[in-house]
């Protein structure tokens, strides 16, 4: 199962999963978590724009998977939830996933040094737990946070290893 949220990190995680973890008889589930539409939203409301954009990203990631590994079976799953992290863990349980792959982003340190407000916000976020960290800790299967390095390879984080560099 790959969490597909439309960011470049999610595409990198999918590419890593297709090249390193997925075998020819495996099933790949692309999971997107969207916020539910408010009950008073009309049919012409602009609330639906992000979900349409979500489907465009899912379609692009599905076509990437089909062009890279045509022998792999694909499934697309869209879940509506307020909180993303518990929804991802619950979807992994429901689908019986054996591996959960998430794209991970790194915050540039020079921005934190130059902009004090970013440092305060980062410290506030550190008190809370990120989506990737929550899924690594609470997923019923092996969960990996994958970050592509600009110099080549990937940094992979799991329960046992943090930022393990893999040249792939």
Low-pLDDT stretches are 45-49, 123-127
Category from helices, strands and their pairing: alpha/beta
* CATH-defined superfamily: HUPs
How many H/I helical runs? 6
Number of discrete domains: 1
How do the helices and strands follow one another from N- to C-terminus? Answer: EHEHEHEHHHEEE
Fraction of residues in helix: 40-55%
Count of beta strands:
7
Q: In CATH terms, what is the fold-level topology? A: Rossmann fold
**Based on CA inertia axes, which overall geometry fits?**
globular
Strand proportion, as a percent range, falls in: 15-25%
Radius of gyration: 17 Å
Quick structural summary:
The protein has 168 residues and is of the alpha/beta class.
Please outline the helices and strands.
Elements lengths: L1 E2 L4 H14 L5 E8 L13 H21 L4 E8 L3 H12 L3 E5 L5 H6 L1 H12 L3 H8 L3 E7 L5 E4 L6 E3 L2
Parallel strand pairs: 1-2, 2-3, 4-5
Antiparallel strand pairs: 5-6, 6-7
Helix pairs in contact: 1-2, 3-6
């Amino acid at each position: 199962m790959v969490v597909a949220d439309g960011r470049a990190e999610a595409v990198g995680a999918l590419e890593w999963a297709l090249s390193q973890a997925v075998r020819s008889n495996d099933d790949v589930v692309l999971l997107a978590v969207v916020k539910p539409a408010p009950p008073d939203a009309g049919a012409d409301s602009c609330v639906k724009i992000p979900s349409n954009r979500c489907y465009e990203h899912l379609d692009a990631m599905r076509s990437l998977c089909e062009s890279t590994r045509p022998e792999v079976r694909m499934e697309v799953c869209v879940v509506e939830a307020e909180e993303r992290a518990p929804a991802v863990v619950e979807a992994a349980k429901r689908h019986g996933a054996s591996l959960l792959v998430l794209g991970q982003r790194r915050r540039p340190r020079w921005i934190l040094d130059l902009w004090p407000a970013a440092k305060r916000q980062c410290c506030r976020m550190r008190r809370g737990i990120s989506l990737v960290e929550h899924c690594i800790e609470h997923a019923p299967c092996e969960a990996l946070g994958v970050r592509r390095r600009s110099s080549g390879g990937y940094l992979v984080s799991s329960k046992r290893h943090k930022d393990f560099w893999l040249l792939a």
